[in-house]
Amino acid sequence: MHEKIEKEVKFYIHDLKKIERQIINLGGVIVQPRVFESNLRFDTHKRELSASCQVLRLRQDTRARLTFKGPADPNSEVSARLEYEVEISDLATGRHILEALGYEVITIYEKYRTSYSLDDIEISLDEMPFGSFMEIEGADTQHIQAMADKLNLKWENRSALSYLHIFSQVKERLGLSMRDLTFENFSELEIQPDHLQLSRAD
After folding, report:
1. What contacts 6, CB < 8 A, 6 or more positions away?
2. pTM surpassing 0.85?
3. Distance between CA atoms of residues 168 and 165, nearest Å
């Protein structure tokens, strides 16, 4: 298990491959080759975790992990929140335990993620059902912004919102009722920047 204050920021990206070439040319080291990721978000029947801005999540990629996140710091320029994470034997067992304790899956979300390390910064390239994004995670806002500048990203176009918060905005803008953020659910939708209420940073 590890505990940390997760500090990260998201950027909505037009050309993810171009950004990846930049990272490699700058000496970025691949940490995780492209992998499919499935996430199960849990809450109580009364949605008490969501009401207190807390996250309880099971994630499956090359391994299964259980994660808790506390509320984000409202005064931070980036997303900053307490995170506990532990690797577990398998997702199915983790799900059975949480459901036995009274938690239920409130949404499932998917992505393809490729991760790099550059100058002690973790960079994740995310292919989401509604578009391409990158996350920059570092020790503090200064180092995160320095990396964004190095990659020629527009800092003013950053987002500290979670993917599920962005998903909620998309559903509201398009009048969608789907529960899950999956590639199948978005396969026939044409998502535009105004649907996400974000501007591309590259």
Report:
1. 69, 79, 80, 81, 82, 83, 137
2. yes
3. 5
Which two three-digit tokens encode residue 120? 């002690």
Residue 144, Cβ density class (10 Å: 0-12 exposed, 13-18 middle, ≥19 buried): buried
Q: Checking DSSP bridges between strand 2-13 and strand 55-60, what pairing results, if any? A: unpaired
Strand 29-43 with 55-60, pairing:
antiparallel
Provide the pairing of β-strand 29-43 with 2-13: unpaired
Tokens of 52: 């207190």
∠ CA 26-29-34, rounded to 5°:
115
Contact 70, 133 (CB under 8 A): no
- The count of other CB atoms within 10 Å of the CB of residue 33 is 9
Q: Which phi and psi (to 5°) does residue 169 adopt?
A: -65, -40
Amino acid code (one letter) for 164: L
Distance CA 8, CA 5 (A): 10
Q: How far apart are CA 187 and CA 178, in angstroms?
A: 13
Q: pLDDT 10s digit of each residue in the chain, 202 long?
A: 566 888 999 999 999 999 999 999 999 999 999 999 999 999 999 999 999 999 999 999 999 999 999 998 888 888 889 999 999 999 999 999 999 999 999 999 999 999 999 999 999 999 999 999 999 999 999 999 999 999 999 999 999 999 999 999 999 999 999 999 999 999 999 999 999 999 999 9
